Amino acid sequence: MTVGFVGLGHMGFPMARRLIEAGHAVVAFDAHAAALDRIVALGGDPASSPRDVADRAETVLASLPTPAAALEVTTGPVGLIKGARIRRYVDLSTVGSRTAAQIHELLAQRDIVAIDSPVSGGVRGAEKGALALMVSAPRTAFDEIKSLLQTLGRPLYVGDKPGSAQTMKLANNILAANVLAATAEVVVMGVKSGLDPAVMIDVLNAGSGATSASRDKFPRAILPRTFDYGFGTGLMVKDVQLYLEEAHALGVTADLAEAVGRLWEAAAQQLGPESDFTVVIKLFEAAAGVTVESADLRT
Ligand code: NAD
């Protein structure tokens, strides 16, 4: 099957590669030529714009950084909406329910079905085809696209209300934002008291303090101080802001999300939006005057 793919960054590239490896013809576009070249080198077919992709594929997937990028790609001057062949648009990005509903409405005017499918599982999940894909779409559209999505991971049907999968994704990500910051805070406290951080992580993982940060992010990117997990600090700020928008629109309290949001904004300001989000620990380290480094890794 011919599949379009727009946005070939940390997540989009490994997802598009899996589609090629599964035997699909992938018509690809990215605003950065180098990103497009990488997928063309693996057999992808380059397109000159989102519209060009949509002229050549009925099903177009996208993995874009921001709501503004998703709006531009779908409904901008050379957007997918102008393409002749496109019938369904699958958004793998995190854009929030408001933007998703807006895109859904605009594309519906051209009989293009918008399928929300934000993902969780990071770059490694994308490489292994082990993502959780949260899908909101008409049930029939989900059934049509399910086997394609299974190339990327596990599709989980959330409902048919446009944007509801985005709400689910933001609920997931605010928890991830909280537990990474909370785990960094307590590990820095322990190191200040003289504990070995690698021992702390082992103990947390054996006990009730285990989090996705202690299981995955600390061993992989923080304890070895590589800070290369593959998710940008600026994207975390965007996800927290989108969560807060949803919570405020619903009139529910979000005290924890607001507190952690201030922390992530400070991280983006001080360490840069392009930095890997695991660098957030450096804020706690600087305040405490310690570095989180295992005795084993120092020798
Ligand atoms: P990224 O910044 O690495 O990649 C985005 C890609 O989109 C880039 O290659 C960029 O050139 C391209 N792009 C931007 N604007 C464009 C435009 N107007 N037209 C065409 N291409 C354009 O981001 P990422 O980490 O791959 O994340 C993509 C989405 O997936 C985001 O919404 C993010 O929140 C979400 N997400 C990321 C992760 C992760 O671990 N990185 C995990 C889950 C979800």
UniProtKB/TrEMBL annotation:
<comment type="similarity">
    <text>Belongs to the HIBADH-related family.</text>
</comment>
<dbReference type="GO" id="GO:0016054">
    <property type="term" value="P:organic acid catabolic process"/>
</dbReference>
<feature type="domain" description="6-phosphogluconate dehydrogenase NADP-binding">
    <location>
        <begin position="2"/>
        <end position="157"/>
    </location>
</feature>
<keyword id="KW-0520">NAD</keyword>
<dbReference type="Pfam" id="PF14833">
    <property type="entry name" value="NAD_binding_11"/>
</dbReference>
<protein>
    <submittedName>
        <fullName>NAD(P)-dependent oxidoreductase</fullName>
    </submittedName>
</protein>
<dbReference type="InterPro" id="IPR013328">
    <property type="entry name" value="6PGD_dom2"/>
</dbReference>
<dbReference type="InterPro" id="IPR008927">
    <property type="entry name" value="6-PGluconate_DH-like_C_sf"/>
</dbReference>
<dbReference type="GO" id="GO:0050661">
    <property type="term" value="F:NADP binding"/>
</dbReference>
<dbReference type="Pfam" id="PF03446">
    <property type="entry name" value="NAD_binding_2"/>
</dbReference>
<feature type="active site">
    <location>
        <position position="169"/>
    </location>
</feature>
<dbReference type="InterPro" id="IPR036291">
    <property type="entry name" value="NAD(P)-bd_dom_sf"/>
</dbReference>
<dbReference type="InterPro" id="IPR029154">
    <property type="entry name" value="HIBADH-like_NADP-bd"/>
</dbReference>
<feature type="domain" description="3-hydroxyisobutyrate dehydrogenase-like NAD-binding">
    <location>
        <begin position="163"/>
        <end position="283"/>
    </location>
</feature>
<dbReference type="GO" id="GO:0016616">
    <property type="term" value="F:oxidoreductase activity, acting on the CH-OH group of donors, NAD or NADP as acceptor"/>
</dbReference>
<dbReference type="GO" id="GO:0051287">
    <property type="term" value="F:NAD binding"/>
</dbReference>
<dbReference type="InterPro" id="IPR002204">
    <property type="entry name" value="3-OH-isobutyrate_DH-rel_CS"/>
</dbReference>
<dbReference type="InterPro" id="IPR015815">
    <property type="entry name" value="HIBADH-related"/>
</dbReference>
<keyword id="KW-0560">Oxidoreductase</keyword>
<dbReference type="InterPro" id="IPR006115">
    <property type="entry name" value="6PGDH_NADP-bd"/>
</dbReference>
